[in-house]
Design brief:
eight-stranded parallel beta sheet, deaminase activity, Amidohydrolase, metal ion binding, hydrolase activity, acting on carbon-nitrogen (but not peptide) bonds, in cyclic amidines, four-stranded mixed beta sheet
């Protein structure tokens, strides 16, 4: 390394995944400029800020590919939603008419701050647009994106939760949002009276505006029908391989092995990514089976083995869809591993589902701890990868583009 280097940040004694020797990470202008053991011993190094990881595990900032900030923290308003997907949609629909920009912003900020202090530095939030709520939730998301840019990159995905083909106003709202700063477009064909036309119009809008797509899809455990194959066909026809993802896809948990292998091949060939949402999918699926309820979560680790881009994400927090949540992606990955019977030999793969793999699904450039990469770093309260994941280690501090963005001191016993 050249002599007399001056950096904005020097993070010393970091333990990186798969490495035995502690490393120093030097950052300049928001990017990782050097990585090596004892950099200060190898050259004359100066840094504006010096921090010591103390031998703890350092990861790139975590990636939440699927969350709904606009309808988080609604439990106090609708605790009697009745359970089930239809009940949750109906409960939130009744509330949306009274959403204000300030209300959505406040609730979204509450959830966003929880996620940030749990180590999330990239997030895709899905935002409902329809005549009931208009663009109010979208306007709140734009404010959140701007106000929290110091700590997180927030990507806004606008979508029609309650269908679009029944009302031309819905498509006009989607088009307006895309013109005013929405980053990508989503769809929800299973709530539309004409699912195929819904998909056709969403793909057409995406191509016209040159944006990626992220669908809510196949959210039940009935294997007799599916929209996933049509999504794969339309993805290839549009030339949108690598730019389409689907969330839920819980039907994949209800089909036999041969059908699953066939779907894995279709998804890999079409370049369609899949996000599992364990908290919501466990809570809403299989209710009619009582104590024999199936897990109802897409086995995305199987998809990853077949070359499909996959992730595990939050979805909903403290609302009728999911009356749980603290914004921790480590907890969500841990939950997925637990319910899929995945042991320590698979912990690294599950960790990828909220980091490297999730970044691949969202097409985040220069992600990861490597020279030239974005200096988005979190220091976990653990010095071993398996124990950090298995024990849901909390982050102690984070650095967004090389600037310290949060601290979360470890608990201390007072004997």
């Amino acid at each position: 390394m050249p002599q007399n280097q001056i950096f904005d940040l020097l993070l010393r004694n970091a333990r990186l995944r798969g490495g035995q020797t502690l490393q120093d990470i030097a950052v300049r202008q928001g990017r990782i400029a050097a990585i090596g053991p004892a950099l200060t011993d190898a050259a004359i190094v100066e840094a504006v800020v010096k921090e010591d990881a103390g031998g703890r595990l350092v990861l790139p900032g975590l990636v939440d590919t699927h969350i709904h900030l606009d309808k988080s923290c609604l439990l106090c308003r609708c605790r009697d939603a009745g359970g089930g997907l239809k009940g949750a949609i109906a409960a939130v629909s009744r509330l949306k008419r009274d959403f204000t920009i300030e209300d959505v912003y406040e609730r979204g900020a509450r959830t966003l701050e929880r996620a940030i202090t749990q180590g999330t530095m990239h997030m895709r939030t899905h935002v409902e647009l329809d005549p009931l709520v208009g663009l109010r939730s979208f306007e709140a998301m734009k404010r959140l994106k701007r106000d929290y840019a110091f700590a997180i990159d927030l990507s806004i995905c606008v979508f029609p939760q309650e269908g679009m083909t029944h009302d031309p106003a819905v498509e006009r709202l989607l088009t307006q949002a895309l013109a005013e700063g929405a980053d990508l477009l989503g769809g929800c064909p299973y709530t539309d009276a004409d699912p195929s036309l819904h998909m056709e119009r969403i793909f057409a809008l995406a191509v016209a505006h040159d944006v990626d797509l992220d669908f809510h899809l196949d959210f039940d455990l009935d294997p007799s029908w599916s929209h996933l194959e049509e999504i794969c066909r339309r993805t290839k026809a549009a030339g949108w391989q690598g730019r389409v993802a689907v969330g839920h896809a819980t039907k994949l948990a209800a089909i036999d092995d041969a059908a699953l292998e066939r779907m894995i091949a279709l998804l890999a060939d079409a370049g369609v990514g899949v996000t599992a949402l364990p908290a919501t999918d466990l809570y809403l699926n299989g209710r009619d089976a009582n104590h024999r309820a199936p897990r109802g979560v897409a086995p995305v680790h199987r998809l990853a083995e077949g070359g499909v881009a996959v992730s595990v994400a939050t979805n909903n927090v403290l609302n009728p869809f999911t009356p749980f949540g603290d914004g921790s992606l480590m907890r969500m990955g841990n939950l997925y591993a637990n319910l899929m019977h995945l042991g320590p030999e698979s912990f690294g793969d599950c960790l990828d589902m909220v980091s490297n793999g999730a970044a691949r699904l969202m097409r985040i450039a220069d992600y990861g701890i490597a020279v030239g990469g974005q200096a988005d770093l979190i220091v976990l309260d653990a010095d071993d990868e398996a124990e950090a994941f298995g024990g849901i280690a909390a982050p102690l501090m984070g650095f967004k583009r090389g600037r310290k963005s949060f601290v979360r001191p470890a608990a201390t016993l007072l004997r």
